[in-house]
Amino acid sequence: MKTIRTVAEMREYVAQARRADRTVGLVPTMGAFHAGHHSLMRAARERCDEVVVWLFVNPRQFNEESDLAAYPRDEARDAAEAAELGVDVLFAPSVDEVYPPGFATSVHVDGLSDVLEGAVRGVSHFTGVCTVVTKMLNMVTPDVAFFGQKDAQQVAVLRRMVRDLNLPVELAVMPTVREPDGLALSSRNARLEPADRERAVALSRGLRAAEAAVADGERDSSAIAAAARTAMAGVDPEYVALVDPDSFELVHNVNGRVLVAVAARIGDTRLIDNTVIHTAATPDGAPTT
Ligand code: AMP
Predict the structure, then answer these.
(1) Ligand 1 proximity of 30 Cβ (cutoff 6 Å)
(2) Which are the contacts of 173, defined by CB distance < 8 A and separation ≥ 6?
């Protein structure tokens, strides 16, 4: 596996691949790899001739200095894991390479970026994500970019951005990888104290309770959210929201697909999780049994 640090070298690598008619898959990450990242790399390895992993802790998407400072970094370990999974290139540019002096442009998706994660972390969060992803797509020009459903709102924002800007890339979204007890894998889990690690399972427990409520025939979003909150006893969620998976508009009565999104602070660590629930859509929204 080759490690590339500059945009010029990355472009040259991709130009050679294109001349050889090879497809390029890109896996964007902020490092500190876990099985969630591995699943994206495996999916890319299966589908594409060349697999590029982007490793960049993007300062522009952090709303808290302390979160950025504490973000886990271990490039040597990440490189060994990526090589083991058959990745061809680790593209790990410096902050100056990505944001040279005088950098002044940003990409913002209205509306979708302002709710839930955007409301809690500030609008600059998704602007930071969209700006860096646009740059990264322009640097690598992949055929397919792989993302995790774990960050459901990020997926919705990026899908809209790719559509609105006619970016020539396919987004492939892979399912959330979980610990045996249900906790969604996250680079931030490493920061949980043992007692907090036990409490953290509350997020997925809340989602399973929401799924169970819907399976029992409940269609009222407030009642479903209340069931999730009850199952999350012991943590104080920042939000439990039922939204349309594409527009992120609030859903009041479940009829068709709904995304249940939760966020909670466990100790000093902010965690998010979600599930998509499918019900048979009926014209008047009445439950089908
Ligand atoms: P990050 O390094 O946290 O920015 O994540 C890089 C990519 O991995 C994003 O597309 C995430 O959605 C995805 N990802 C993070 N955690 C998981 C997980 N538990 N399962 C699947 N994908 C994940």
Answers:
(1) yes
(2) 146, 147, 148, 149, 155
Q: Identify whether 37 is a catalytic site residue.
A: yes
Mean pLDDT of 235-243: 98
236 SS3 class: coil
Q: What is the pTM of this model?
A: 0.96
Q: Which residue among 26, 30, 33, 37 is best mutated to probe the pocket of ligand 1, counting the most ligand atoms within 8 A of its Cβ? A: 37
Q: Is the CB of 184 under 6 A from ligand 1?
A: yes
How high is the mean pLDDT of the chain? 96
Residue tagged active-site, from 37, 38, 108, 252: 37
| Nearest alpha carbon, ligand 1 atom 7 | 29
CA atoms within 13 A on the CB side of 67: 20
* Cβ(116)–Cβ(225) below 8 Å: no
Closest CA to 242 of 116, 129, 146, 127: 116
* Cα dihedral across residues 203, 204, 206, 207: positive or negative: positive
Residue 151 CA: which ligand 1 atom is closest?
12
Place of tokens 């500030």: 122
Identify whether the C-beta of residue 67 lies closer than 8 Å to the C-beta of residue 111. Answer: no
3-state helix, strand, coil in the chain (%, to 5): 45, 20, 35
Ligand 1 centroid to 151 CA: how many Å?
Answer: 7
Long-range contacts of 101-110 (CB under 8 A, 24+ apart): 105/131, 106/130, 106/131, 107/131, 107/134, 107/161, 107/165, 109/157, 109/160, 109/161, 109/164
Contact 177, 35 (CB under 8 A): yes
Report pLDDT for 281: 81
Distance CA 22, CA 29 (A): 22
CA of 32 to the centre of ligand 1 (A): 10
